[in-house]
Amino acid sequence: MPIATAWAAVTLAAPSFAATTDFGNCGATLKSAAVSQGISAERFDQLFTDITPDLSVLPLLDAQPEFTTPIWDYLAALVDSQRINDGRSRLTQHRALLDQVSAQYGVDPATIVAVWGVESDYGRVFGKRPLLQSLATLSCNGRRQPFFKGELLALLKLIDKGDLNPAGLTGSWAGAFGHTQFMPSTYARIAVDGDGDGRRDLVASIPDALASTANYLKQSGWRTGQPWGVEVRLPAGFDAGLAGRTKRKPLAGWRTLGITLADGTSLQVPAIADDANAALLLPAIADDANAALLLPAGAKGPALLVFRNYDAIYSYNAAESYALAIATLADRLRGSAGLTATWPTDDPGLGRDERRQLQTLLLARGHAIGNADGMVGNATRRALQVEQQRLGWKNADGRAGTRILQALRDAKPALPTAFRLPTNYTQLVQSPIVRSNVSMKDVQGLSTGDFNGFPAWKVETPFSTAAISVFGGQLLSFVPKGGQDVMWLSPSAKQPPTPIRGGSPVCWPYFSRQGQSNDVPSHGFVRTVSWELRDARREADGTLVLTLAPPPLDNLTLRLQMVLRIGRTLEQELITENTGSQPVSITQALHNYFNVSDALKVDVTGLDGLTYLDKLDGGNAHIQQGDWNLRDPRDPGRSDRIYTQAAGHYVLRDPGFKRSIDITTSGSRTAVVWNAGEVAAAKMDDIGAGWRNYVCVEAGNVGPDVIELAPGGRHTLKQVFEVKPL
């Protein structure tokens, strides 16, 4: 479909049969300019066949976060623990490449990786907007049209030359794209071929992207072996009017004005540590005639003297907050503890881990905000406004800060509802009926049959097989193609109505007997009733998606649905809805039994530093030290730990099976890690000697992590398993 004659006034798509010659004034101008720069008219028409304006980019011209977000929020989001840890991993992973690039261009590895981390989160976030569409829209609408027209033409030439594949090419609203988010004109001028394949591809090639970033900084005046700046302390009564990136003085001049290093010692330019060897100090400059004082939050916040390397970083994206994000992230990647001065606010910003915690608390209160992904969008802000108003705050601005996080943490959760035994529970437990709304013959790869003695829905995809028990809706098996089963199922598991030992039992609407009387079954009602298959569909690649649910339970205003997506990974969602008129509190868990070669030799990462309640120690709280394993000297050979406020990403490393199981959760504030151990397992005839063949790492909301659902509220607990070779 063509670009309309007056794009700013477009409300309907143009007819699909129109040719590029009918674009109208703006489209015709773009085409003429492209042809004058060597792009054939036919090629232009081909590239613009499906281009329509996207006017949603126009408001973003005046809403860039570098200029609209408080500096403490901006840096908290971009220089958080996750980005620091990931950056250090990238330094190790790409050490040989980074050493080569650093030697060639003179830019240290930490700075290169910091740009990568800030620009695309190390290649995770390229931007979702089609580049041609965004740049074409901005070329014909709003301010700065000549600038964006130049970027569009540069992009067209890169595509026409063969550096880039236009299919699926996306980026930011303004046209930046690739691992380190180059604008097309910068790409054309600066990009280099870092992997030697004859193309400059900053989208698909990490070597090209990192080498091009180093070349950009070099071309911008980077001085090898010298720091970007230093944190300083101002004397009392200092004239803040002297600050500013363009107000330069020799270092001696700043020293004369009473400025010292942050620790109070005499002002000098410090040596910087090479990030390949923290003990090796590179030579420092004795003075710098181009030092400028920055006060990014005024005289009461951190103060920084910056040098020419800061200017090189600043040139990448002309915003102080942006440049400081890269500079301070690079310092953290070298091992620095970060800025010592605090920001002048009583409500600091949040990193992504904390934002996920905040969103999890919102989900627990029944706010429909999607997943707890650490990305604060409109739904999260609206939910925050509701909670701020409920707390009586005068300024309910929806901002995600430390104050609201702490307030929601401190809010006393409601105790779990004391659920009564549903009047139809006994009848449902004894019912052998298999219910299904799906015809097996209509869904390729789906069948019913016996799995280790249990009636089950059986799944076969090009990537994996799986089995889900009708009894309890319980995942019994997930086997990646050519691999071992991810789940452990006890060889002596008992038949219904006894709960099945192994797989992934669904514990709902309560875990254990938390808050319940002894006349209800442990771990909830749904793991001992027959479930119904409500829907099944096969995706284009062969992945199967199943929707299951337990039967309706009398006296219960909650409804449960489970969605399983079985393919390259195993994705499982428990969706709880409160259909009643009163709030209801629940606890829940997906009680995963993972199949391991030897429970004594595996480790689980992602729990270090978390508080856990030890059920084998009377529920007392402890701090996890390092990775979890059964070799823990505090209580070796067994484990029953409830980790509260857990991060939601764990890796079970199994050297015997030469694999790791990557476990990612959302809507889960708790991780439960359990193995009965030899002594206790000997008393369980459906475990016995099998205790060394499993480790439970459970996604849930248990213990103090209670979920409160408002009337009409929904909550989704999700987990994803991905198997990777060690």
Report on the structure:
With 726 residues, this protein is an alpha+beta fold. The chain folds into five domains: 7-219, Bacterial muramidase (Helicase, Ruva Protein, domain 3), CATH 1.10.8; 229-333, no CATH class; 352-410, no CATH class; 425-489 and 506-581, Beta-galactosidase, Chain A, domain 5 (Distorted Sandwich); 593-714, Beta-galactosidase, Chain A, domain 5, CATH 2.70.98. It is built from 19 helices and 32 strands. It has a nine-stranded mixed β-sheet. It is globular, with a radius of gyration of 29 Å.
Secondary-structure-derived class? alpha+beta
The profile of the biggest β sheet is: 9 strands, mixed
**Would you identify the CATH architecture of the largest domain?**
Orthogonal Bundle
- Helix proportion: 25-40%
Q: What is the topology, as strand order, of the major beta sheet?
A: 10-16-17-18-19-32-28-27-23
CATH superfamily of the largest domain: Bacterial muramidase
In one word, what is the shape?
globular
Residue share in β-strands: 15-25%
CATH topology of the largest domain: Helicase, Ruva Protein, domain 3
How would the blueprint of this fold be written?
Layout: H1 25-36, H2 41-47, H3 65-68, H4 71-78, H5 81-93, H6 95-105, H7 109-120, E1 129-130, H8 131-140, H9 145-161, E2 170-171, H10 184-190, H11 206-219, E3 229-233, E4 248-249, H12 251-256, E5 260-261, E6 272-274, E7 277-282, E8 291-294, E9 303-306, H13 308-314, H14 320-333, H15 352-364, H16 378-390, H17 402-410, H18 425-430, E10 435-436, E11 446-451, E12 454-460, E13 464-469, E14 475-480, E15 506-507, E16 532-538, E17 544-549, E18 558-566, E19 570-578, E20 584-586, E21 588-590, E22 593-595, E23 603-605, E24 611-614, E25 620-623, E26 639-644, E27 649-654, E28 659-666, E29 670-675, H19 677-681, E30 694-701, E31 707-709, E32 714-725
Parallel strand pairs: 10-16
Antiparallel strand pairs: 1-2, 3-5, 3-9, 4-8, 6-7, 8-9, 11-12, 12-13, 13-14, 15-21, 16-17, 17-18, 18-19, 19-32, 20-31, 21-30, 22-30, 23-27, 24-25, 24-26, 26-29, 27-28, 28-32, 29-30
Helix pairs in contact: 4-14, 5-7, 6-11, 7-14, 8-9, 9-10, 13-14, 15-17
